[in-house]
Design a protein that fits this description.
With about 160 residues, the protein is of the alpha/beta class. The chain is built from six helices and five strands. The protein binds 4'-phosphopantetheine.
Length: about 160
C-alpha cells in the first residue's frame, strides 16, 4: 500500500515556506496531494484555480521531485478528500508556538472525524517569519514580495516588475 499524505492549506499565495514543507513531505511519502482548501476564517485574495496553477509552476521551477498531485477541494471536509484518495496523513508546517496552538485543535478534530493523523514538519528557520498574510500585506502596500515567494508568485502578483 503506498503511503499517501495530503498537504492542505489556503496557499493564498504559496510561499517559500510552503514549498519547503511540500519538498520535505514529498521526500517522506510515496505520494502527496497538495490541496488548496477554503479556510472559512479567511477572506481570499487569489482565485482557487490561480492558486493551484501557481503551486504547480512553483513546484516545477523548484525542481521538487516525487509523485505530487496539486488540486483544490471546496465541497466538504478536508478529511473527506483524504478518505477519497486513500491518504492516511495530513502534513502541515509548524513555524512556532502560535502555529502549534492554531493547528492542534484541527489535527485532533481531523483524527476524531476520520482517524487521519497530522504530521507536523519544522520548516527551514530561514522561512520562519514568512506567511501568506504577510505577503498579501506587503504586496498590497507596494512592497517587494520576491524574498518570500517563488518567482511564479512574484510574477503573478507584480507582473510589471518581474
Ligand atoms: O493555510 P491555512 O489557512 O492555515 O489552512 C487551513 C485549512 C484550509 C487546512 C483548514 O481551514 C481546513 O482544513 N479547512 C477545511 C474545512 C475542514 O475540514 N474543517 C474541519 C477541520 S478543522
Amino acid at each position: 500500500m503506498p503511503r499517501i499524505a495530503v498537504v492542505p492549506g489556503s496557499f493564498d499565495p504559496v510561499t517559500l515556506g510552503h514549498l519547503d514543507v511540500i519538498a520535505r513531505a514529498a521526500a517522506m511519502f510515496d505520494e502527496i496531494h497538495v490541496l488548496v482548501v477554503h479556510n472559512p476564517g479567511k477572506t481570499a485574495l487569489i482565485p482557487f484555480a490561480d492558486r493551484v496553477a501557481l503551486i504547480r509552476s512553483s513546484i516545477a521551477e523548484a525542481g521538487i521531485r516525487g509523485a505530487i498531485t496539486v488540486t483544490s477541494w471546496s465541497v466538504g471536509l478536508l478529511v473527506d478528500y483524504c478518505t477519497e484518495v486513500g491518504a492516511t496523513a495530513i502534513v502541515k508546517g509548524l513555524r512556532g508556538q502560535t502555529d502549534l496552538v492554531y493547528e492542534t485543535p484541527m489535527a485532533i478534530v481531523n483524527r476524531d472525524l476520520a482517524g487521519i493523523e497530522t504530521v507536523f514538519l519544522l520548516p527551514n528557520p530561514e522561512h520562519a517569519h514568512v506567511s501568506s498574510s504577510l505577503v498579501r500585506q506587503v504586496n498590497s502596500l507596494g512592497g517587494n514580495v520576491r524574498p518570500y515567494v517563488p518567482a511564479a508568485v512574484a510574477r503573478f502578483l507584480r507582473p510589471n516588475q518581474e
